[in-house]
Amino acid sequence: MNPNQVRQRGPLRNLFIHLAYRHGWRRPIFLATICGITPGAVHQALSKGSPKGIEAADLCLGDTRLRPKGVIDFIEKTENMNPNAWSRRFL
Model-level pTM? Predict the structure, then answer.
């Protein structure tokens, strides 16, 4: 999987938007920038309800074996910016 795939229309982008929102990324402008869409498109995606597989994606986020090297360092640096960070709940 390529991180740029969230910039393409489809189920992966929808899953990413819902997962990010669920884990504290509450500013649609940030999600829109990452996905290459408008904030309105983010709101539209969120209004459709959670996609199938979101619970499995949640479990994968908590499994450090599935993360590329360097991601843990990034999470540790950024979790201080978000008191509701998923790593505080799952790690």
Answer: 0.69
